[in-house]
Each structure stands twice: as structure tokens, then as C-alpha cells.
Amino acid sequence: MNPFLENYGGLLLLISFGALVFAFFVMFRTSRRRPRFRAIHAFSLLRGQMGRAIESGRDLHVSIGTGGVSGDDTATTLAGLAVAEYLADEAAASGIAPLVSTSDPTSAILAEDAVRRPYVRQGNLNDFPRGAARLPALNPTQYAAATMDLLNHEPVLANIMSGAFGPEAALIDQAASSHDLPQLFGGSDPRALAVMATSADQMLLGEEMYAAKAYLRAQPWHLASLRALDVVRLVIVVVIVLAFFIGLVS
């Protein structure tokens, strides 16, 4: 391998990706046209969900999982926070908020801030319901048990889980299923996906979670980032195919 590429290949890839994002941002900002992406029905389910909760007088439970923001689960947790903030944005005008839970202290702080931001943007912070973000337990299994208790004893309209989950997701699923609650699940752990695949109404699989901001908010930066990722994936596929055929010829 070329020593230059070996030492600086990652940096060149990062710079190229940044240039792509900027180019697409300028394109979408000037044309004011939203690019087309494939339909993800889970995001369609989220739209209006908060309005239905408000009308019914029931809570909307959003679990962002057991991951934190300083390790391997950072991206997954942030994707869950994006979902929580979108739902809070829908509810801010009415003075209520989704009920967000997690088992990580740092995630709980960020969840509180994510739910609070829509109230700040609308200038009605006095109506912000304190305690919208909950930290019922620090251990994943204990957190799942506490969430079961929440779903069993509080008026919940739907159960939304988007974040880092392991096999403990089965406990939360059991409680939600026993009350026939609509469920949306997003995760990257195969164990949790295997558990939830049989009962969740909609699933966000792996990288679909990380597209939450682009699909739900459709801001130019989010759309540009998602389109740039599509281009990078296409380039990687082409390189792999070319390398395969070059290997056959040689």
C-alpha cells in the first residue's frame, strides 16, 4: 500500500466527506428542494403520535436505552435523543412533553435538555414539565423492570424505544404487549432486534436510526449529510466490485 494513503487515507476520506456534505448543503439550500430518500414507515408512525397522546390525555413513553454518550453507544444514544426532541417539539405548544427514560446518568441529562429545547425555542419555558426525563435505575435489567412497572401502572398511549438495548428489551416488550400498546423499536444490537422483531409494529434497523434527523426535521445540513453517506456507500461498493474483478484478472 502507498505509504501516503496508509498514513493519511483516513484524513483524506474525512475531508472528502466534509466537502460532499458542504456541496450538498449548498445545493439543497439554494434550490430549496428536498431530495428523495426511500420511505421508512417507522418515521411516518412517529408523525402525529404526540398529538394523539395529547388528545387522549395519555403519556407517550420514549426509551433511549441503556447507553451513554462517551463510549461505543454514543451514536445510538444520540439517535434516540433526536427522536425524543422531535416528539417534544410537537408537544411544546401544549405544555406537555413525552416521558423519556434511560438508565445512564449522562443520557438522562441530555434527555432533559433535548425535551427542554423546544420550549426555549417557542419562548414558553415556564410551561416546561420538570421531570420529563427519568432515570429509574442504573443497571440495564433493573431499568427494564422499572420500565415494565411504568407501562403497567401509568396511562401510556404508545411505547417508543430507540437507543442501545440488549436482551433486557424483552421485559419492556412483554409489558407493552400485555397492554396492546403500539410499539416502535430502533436498535443495533442483534439480540434486542431478534426479541423485538416479532412484536414491534415498526422497526428501525441499524443505520436507519441515524437518519432520524434527516427524515423527521429535513433541515439542509441533515439532508446533506445523509446524501453524502449515500454517495460514500456507492463509492465503496464500486471499489469493492472493481477490486474483485481486478483480482480475478490478475
Structural description of this entry:
- The protein is of the alpha/beta class.
- It has two domains: 37-217, Rossmann fold (3-Layer(aba) Sandwich); 219-250.
- It contains ten helices and six strands.
- The protein has helices at residues 3-31, 41-46, 49-56, 74-91, 105-122, 140-153, 169-178, 190-196, 212-216, 220-249, and strands at 59-65, 99-101, 133-134, 156-164, 183-187, 202-205.
- The chain has a six-stranded parallel beta sheet with strand order 3-2-1-4-5-6, with helices on both faces.
- The chain is globular and about 65 Å long.
- It starts with a helix and ends with a helix.
- The mean pLDDT is 82.
Question: What is the structure about, briefly put?
Answer:
This protein is α/β, with parallel strands linked by helices and 250 residues long.
Secondary-structure blueprint of this entry?
Layout (H helix, E strand, L loop, with lengths): L2 H29 L9 H6 L2 H8 L2 E7 L8 H18 L7 E3 L3 H18 L10 E2 L5 H14 L2 E9 L4 H10 L4 E5 L2 H7 L5 E4 L6 H5 L3 H30 L1
Parallel strand pairs: 1-2, 1-4, 2-3, 4-5, 5-6
Helix pairs in contact: 1-10, 3-4, 4-5, 6-7
